[in-house]
Amino acid sequence: MNIDVDIQGELLPNWFTILVQLLSTAVLVFFFYKFLWKPVRKYLADKSALTQKPLEDALEKERQAELANNEAKEKLAAAAKKSESLVESGRKEGEKIKNDLVNEGQEKVRQMMENATAQIASDREKMEEEVKSDMVDVALLVAEKLAIEKSDEEGNRKMIEGFLKDLEDGQ
Fold it and tell me: What is the Cα–Cα distance from 43 to 120, expressed in whole angstroms?
């Protein structure tokens, strides 16, 4: 069996075929690059821009929300401080009013006590004068009755007891 095969020809490729394949691959790559790669890349860039825009908007809104939240926290802290100071000033004002009212009440009580003491002293003096006046009147009446009736000691005693009884009965 005689095999006559050109091993060297079979192992080494043909240069013309290689060159044609390289040229056809270059033409294909050129057309793919020109008509597919650029439009696909532009499409992907546009798609990326479309998806990137909402992300950027969301990040911006998140940043604005965080700023607004911080501002609200600051306002809340300021309002808490202000309400605390208002409560404190109200408490101080209440204490002042309470102290003023207590002092005013104590002054009124002191004044009422002085007036009552003065009134009691005045009433006592009037009563003492009335009692003295009544005693003088009684003594005069007794003396007058004694002088008119000039009786003995037992008679004087009965007359005074009768006179006192008349006074008790409301004569």
Answer: 112
Q: Residues 32-80: pLDDT tens digits?
A: 888 888 888 898 898 888 888 888 888 999 999 999 999 999 999 999 9
Distance of CA 121 to the CA centre of its chain: 54
In the chain, where the domains are located: 14-169
Question: Would the pTM of this model clear 0.90, i.e. be above it?
Answer: no
- Burial bucket for residue 142 (CB in 10 Å: 0-12, 13-18, 19+): middle
* Structure tokens, 103: 């002092």
Amino acid at 160: I
**151 Rama sector, left if φ>0, alpha if ψ -120 to 50, beta otherwise:** beta
DSSP state of 170: T
Cβ atoms of 152 and 144 closer than 8 Å:
no
One-character DSSP codes across 79-138 = HHHHHHHHHHHHHHHHHHHHHHHHHHHHHHHHHHHHHHHHHHHHHHHHHHHHHHHHHHHH
